[in-house]
From TrEMBL:
Organism superkingdom: Bacteria
Keyword Glycosyltransferase tagged: no
InterPro entries: Glycosyltransferase_grp1
Protein name stated in the entry: Glycosyltransferase involved in cell wall bisynthesis
Gene3D superfamilies: Glycogen Phosphorylase B
Lineage, broadest ranks: Bacteria, Pseudomonadati, Pseudomonadota, Alphaproteobacteria, Rhodobacterales
Length: 370
């Protein structure tokens, strides 16, 4: 479908698409930008201002953010005087990363405003977050529409009374992962950053599960990723038999795809994951995924589409799932192919592009006939 040459201003207050530190947020921002570009829109970066308010008691940080945002608005006002956007697309505004740049401009100049992956959390209403969350809800109520990537976010916004909600599945660029699988016997693969919090919790859960594997099982684990907790995380696996775990560090996408193509199973518990794009990459590469049935993981891993979900905090169940696949390579291969086809159909960049076109063009059609 050919789209009109609309100008879309893109803003990601948590982390700009060109931010130097890799993360799932940065990857999704890049992929949304690419999908909008692929659709035929002219996408420009509204601002690189990072609006991350880590501490609810840091009043000075909020004041500084307001000053910085005011400067950005002045810059954009001058820039957009000759080249205004037709639509503003804001990725992942939430209580800790509010959009203080584009929202006032959208209202002042009547520019349609769209949010994607906004979230609301009642328990965050304290300190400066009370103000930012109130502003966020007001923004979402006035947005042209709001895109939800997970059922959990959708339910939270429905409960908060946010209107004009639309679902879109998380997605990846599948092409780098489409080489034919050549699984090595017993090869488990994990791709994850090494930092405190949920990531460290998942590494702990994974190490505990591996401790329950039978001694006669032929297995080895490749860990792709790096971060400030690398030495601490490596220590979590010290009790495992020597030589079982390879620490590959941070790799580029082609190298990750190559490692995945040699895997037999992808393992990552997913503690408190919003959804996890690495799960989609693994499945696109033809690997069956073993994860916990927790948080947003079921958005991208399905027992009906080649995945295996086990209860959280049950290392024995995770170990049993591993054994069932590693001792039956034919089953693992079949589940991996099922997962690959599911990702291609429901979580690909082409599916996301089509969904974005339908939503955006539907908006302009409705306003032109109103």
């Amino acid at each position: 479908m050919a789209v009109p040459p609309r100008h879309i201003a893109f803003y990601a207050p948590l982390k700009a698409p060109d931010h130097p530190v890799p993360s799932g947020d940065r990857l999704m921002a890049r992929q949304l930008w690419a999908a909008l570009d692929r659709a035929g829109y002219r996408v420009t970066l509204a601002s690189e201002l990072r609006a991350y308010l880590r501490d609810p008691d840091d009043v000075a940080a909020l004041c500084q953010l307001k000053q910085d945002a005011a400067q950005e608005r002045a810059r954009l006002t001058a820039l957009w005087a000759t080249d205004p956007p037709d639509l503003i697309f804001c990725y992942h505004p939430y209580v800790k990363a509010p959009d203080m740049v584009c929202v006032p401009l959208a209202r002042n100049y009547g520019i349609p405003y769209v949010s994607c992956e906004a979230s609301y959390s009642q328990r965050r209403n304290h300190g400066i977050w009370t103000e930012t969350q109130a502003d966020l809800l007001d923004t979402l109520h006035h947005a042209a529409f709001n895109i939800c990537l997970t059922g959990r976010d959708h339910a939270g916004l429905v409960k908060a009374g946010v209107p004009r909600l639309h679902r879109m599945a998380p997605f990846i660029v599948t092409e780098p992962f489409m080489t034919d699988p050549h699984p090595q016997v017993g090869h488990i693969v994990t791709v994850a950053m090494m930092r405190a919090g949920a990531k460290a919790d998942s590494y702990i859960a994974m190490a505990r599960a591996l401790e329950h594997l039978p001694s006669d099982l032929d297995w080895h684990l490749s860990v792709i990723g790096d971060g400030p907790l690398r030495s601490d995380i490596q220590a979590m696996f010290a009790s495992l038999p020597a030589g079982r775990v390879r620490w590959l560090g941070a790799l580029d996408t082609p190298s990750i795809a190559s490692s995945l193509s040699q895997g037999a199973v992808y393992l990552w518990p997913g503690c408190n994951e919003a959804y996890g794009l690495a799960y989609l990459e693994a499945q696109a590469a033809g690997l069956p995924v073993i994860a916990c049935r927790t948080a947003g993981v079921p958005e991208v891993v399905s027992t009906e589409a080649g995945g295996m979900l086990v209860p959280p905090d049950d290392p024995v169940a995770m170990a049993d799932a591993l054994v069932s696949l590693l001792r039956d390579p034919a089953r693992a291969s079949a589940q991996g192919e099922t997962a690959r086809q599911h990702v291609l159909q429901h979580h690909s960049e082409s599916a996301a592009t089509a969904r974005l076109i339908a939503l955006i063009e539907g908006l302009f059609m409705s306003t032109s006939t109103a």
